[in-house]
Amino acid sequence: MSVEALKGPPPNCGLCPRLVNFRRDNKKAHGEWFNGAVPAFGPATAKILVVGLAPGLQGANRTGRPFTGDYAGDLLYPTLLKFGLAQGTYGAEADDGLTLTGCRITNAVRCVPPQNKPTPEEQRTCRSFLVAEIAALTNVKAILALGHIGHDAVITTMGLRKVQFPFAHGAQHRLRDNLLLADSYHCSRYNVNTGVLTTAMFEDVVKKLVKTIDQ
């Protein structure tokens, strides 16, 4: 297990000029925010890796912890707690005392993008960190992809063809080395408010995933 690989990019990562400029603008407006490349959260011994799209502007970009402080975390973390993948209480802040036990959370793109939309080039540039992280997590049995872009990032990272593993909410795919990929619609405010994703739908995905890897 490579400790360096699990560190990911430094907070002041300068690989993507557009994202660097956006970070600087946010730092000027909100100097007390994290405003950097957000590190993964969770133990290196995790059996499940959760992969999202990118940090939210007022969520992870503010708090420095994935899915913390924005609407998506209000669904994600209580679900992880419900199915024994986390301990404590989610308080929407990085210092709320919540810990992950059975999973680790990361993003396909580590810096907050304008309008929450990373460019294809930014996704390609940041992919090396996901490649290194998956390789270093030797206990991982499954990946939970939140959203189509998270799913595609995993497939590309694994060197596989997306056409052979189409994204579908609730789907499970067996990848190489018997790694399991589970798909869910992203637990964003838009998806929840429009009914694309309900609490029951998301809980079903996580429940099925936990049951599958425990068999």
Our count of domains comes out at 1
User: What is the alpha-carbon Rg in Å?
Assistant: 16 Å
Task: Report the major sheet.
Answer: 5 strands, mixed
CATH topology descriptor: Uracil-DNA Glycosylase, subunit E
> Which geometry do the CA atoms define?
globular
List unreliable stretches of 5+ residues.
none
The overall strand count is: 7
- Percent of residues in helical segments? 25-40%
CATH superfamily: Uracil-DNA glycosylase-like domain
Strand order in the sheet with the most strands: 4-1-5-7-6
Helix-strand pattern: HHEHHEEEHEHEEHH
Mean pLDDT across residues: 95
Number of helices: 8
Beta-strand percent range: 5-15%
Report the end-to-end length measured between terminal Cα atoms. Answer: 25 Å
CATH architectural group: 3-Layer(aba) Sandwich
CATH class designation: Alpha Beta
Structural class, from secondary structure content?
A: alpha/beta
Describe it for me?
- Helix content is 38%, strand content 13%.
- With 215 residues, it is α/β, with parallel strands linked by helices.
- The protein has a 5-stranded mixed beta sheet, with helices on both faces. A two-stranded antiparallel sheet has the order 2-3.
- The chain is globular, with a radius of gyration of 16 Å.
- The mean pLDDT is 95.
Task: Write a concise keyword list for the protein shown above.
215 residues; alpha/beta; Uracil-DNA Glycosylase, subunit E; 8 helices; 38% helix; globular
Task: Give a quick summary of the entry.
This protein is of the alpha/beta class. The chain has helices spanning 3-7, 17-29, 60-63, 71-82, 120-136, 148-157, 189-193, 199-214, and strands at residues 48-52, 86-87, 99-100, 103-107, 142-146, 172-174, 180-184. The chain has a single domain, classed as Uracil-DNA glycosylase-like domain (Uracil-DNA Glycosylase, subunit E).
